[in-house]
Amino acid sequence: MNQIRVSELTKNYQTGKVIYEVLKGIDFSIADGEFVSICGPSGSGKTTLLYVLGGLEPYTSGSVSIFEKELNTYTDSEKAKMRSQDIGYVFQFYNLIPNLTVYENILLSSVLGGNKSKDEILEVLDSVGMKDFYGYYPSQLSGGMQQRVAIARCLINDPKIIFADEPIGNLDYKNGIAIMELFKKLNQDFHKTILMVTHNEDTTVFGTRTLHMLDGKVIKDEKNNQ
């Protein structure tokens, strides 16, 4: 089943009388269980594409289907429910609440998708290697540890799709590789569909497929050797 299907997608921004074409007639689909990297230089449109697919940005024309339903036909409440339960987000910046512990950050996120028990929260923290740090505050954690907590926050409501925007952009090489290995595990062992934006081609090898973007277009769509 195609969890995402995009056809002739365009996205424009207008400033005064000037129209900027950001996405220019994009076509592709993503099947259940794929790990797809969107790779390209700054300004290629990759983050805008991710935000459009996640329902965070409207699009100008074309078609976007999520879970086999046209995105424009979702009501606002349906979009909010989808974002809290069916889609998880991991960003370059961890966005943890500084005065809440690791456990409390996850608990707060779980309330949006349906309350989870303490055991369920500790289980998801264990899956990302952070169970022993559940009582710590974000300021007591390294960048790599904070990103693991952010991934746990994404996972707590068991999303079908994970959207990741430059998830290792703020990490050093060692921590970046560890996070990419974690994403690969989530894809292979937990069957999570992952769509990741990156400007670093070296990270695309962790996924199953790469969409190369340039100037608002997908210029190459290739399978990765696993």
Helix content: 25-40%
Q: What is the CATH class?
A: Alpha Beta
Query: In which order are the strands of the major sheet placed?
Result: 6-7-8-3-9-10
Number of helices: 6
Query: How far is the first residue's CA from the last residue's CA?
Result: 21 Å
CATH superfamily: P-loop containing nucleotide triphosphate hydrolases
Radius of gyration: 17 Å
- CATH topology name: Rossmann fold
Write the element-wise H/E pattern from the N-terminal end onward.
Answer: EEEHEEHEHHHEHEEE
Total separate domains: 1
Overall 3D shape = globular
Given helix and strand content, the structural type is alpha/beta
- Named at the architecture level, the CATH assignment is 3-Layer(aba) Sandwich
What share of the residues does DSSP label as strand, in percent? 25-35%
Largest sheet: 6 strands, mixed
Question: What's the mean pLDDT score?
Answer: 91
Low-pLDDT parts are: none
Topology, pairings included?
Layout: E1 2-15, E2 18-31, E3 35-39, H1 46-53, E4 61-66, E5 69-70, H2 76-86, E6 87-90, H3 102-113, H4 118-127, H5 143-155, E7 161-165, H6 173-190, E8 193-198, E9 209-214, E10 217-223
Helix pairs in contact: 3-4, 3-5, 4-5, 5-6
